[in-house]
Amino acid sequence: MEENLKIKINAKGLEGNSLRNIKDGITYFGLISPNDENINKKIDFNTGNNDIINTKNDIQYGLQFLIKFDINDYCYYIKDCSCGSGYGTFMKVCEEMKIRDSTLINIGNNYIVLTYGVDALEQEENNTIDNENQKILSVKVFRGELVNYSYVFNQSQINKILIGKGENCNIVLNDELLDDIHCVIEFKNQKGWVISDGFDNKNSENGTWINLSDETKILEGMLIQSNQNIYKCHLIQ
User: Fold this and answer.
1) Distances (CA, A) of 172 to 176, 191, 205, 214
2) How many Cα atoms occupy the beta-carbon half-sphere of 115 within 13 Å?
3) Mean pLDDT of 8-34
4) Which residue(s) pair with 99 in the sheet?
5) What is the per-residue pLDDT across 46-57, written as a single tens digit (0 to 9) for each?
6) Residue 128 sits in which domain range?
7) 179 and 101 assigned to the same domain
8) pTM summary value
């Protein structure tokens, strides 16, 4: 995409020319490899479905994410469609956010999975999470220096977890893209575990990004990162 390209979406879908001529309120975003002229034949642009698994030069080709208009809530939602890949779609953490079970975050060159419970990382199914399990947070780091390295934090022993490259952090990552204290995970009685970018009212230089695996309401000024593209959302009345 060209820098500063403006994409307009309304309640029916993408405004202007589109590979999908169906006005169902859904707009799909994806990448077609310039090295494979036939790759577009593998995508069903009527539904947005695809079976492409093709990663080169840190770019994943195929379906990336979708934006849809919800007529009941009268607002737009965004969702990652890259099947949980590290090359998925992320939103920038601009204010304190509650951590859901199996949350994926990206900071610098590191991807971190956050799950509830001591054994949550080893369980294939963990549909029932009681209050005690929610007080325990398992942290798994991968794609960075500490590949498949795991931590377990219990709220009864610690309620604030500092992550960054500084030696005083609870999780220290050797990554020049990180601040000394890049982000903070904290347990709050009324909310549970929450994550915030930066430290001491100062944002990190490169941001903390959370994967959009669940449908998330689009808010004014939201920053979205997908592969090498960054989008800023504006709501037009």
Assistant:
1) 12, 26, 17, 28
2) 18
3) 83
4) none
5) 554 444 333 334
6) 94-207
7) yes
8) 0.81
Is there a contact between 36 and 62 (Cβ–Cβ < 8 Å)?
no
Number of residues in the chain:
237
82 & 101 share domain: no
The radius of gyration computed from the CA coordinates of the chain, to the nearest angstrom, equals 19
3-state helix/strand/coil string of 14-26: ECCCCCCCCCCCE
**What's the CATH number where 34 sits?**
2.60.200
**Do the Cβ atoms of 151 and 138 come closer than 8 Å?**
yes
Both tokens of residue 166? 């500084």
Q: Do 80 and 211 form a contact (C-beta atoms < 8 A)? A: yes
Query: What is the Cα 138 distance to its own chain's centre?
Result: 18
Could you tell me whether strands 192-197 and 209-211 are parallel, antiparallel, or unpaired per DSSP bridges? unpaired
Confidence at 61, pLDDT banded by 50, 70, 90:
low
In a domain, 1, yes or no: no
Instruction: Report whether 95 contacts 201 (CB < 8 A).
Output: no
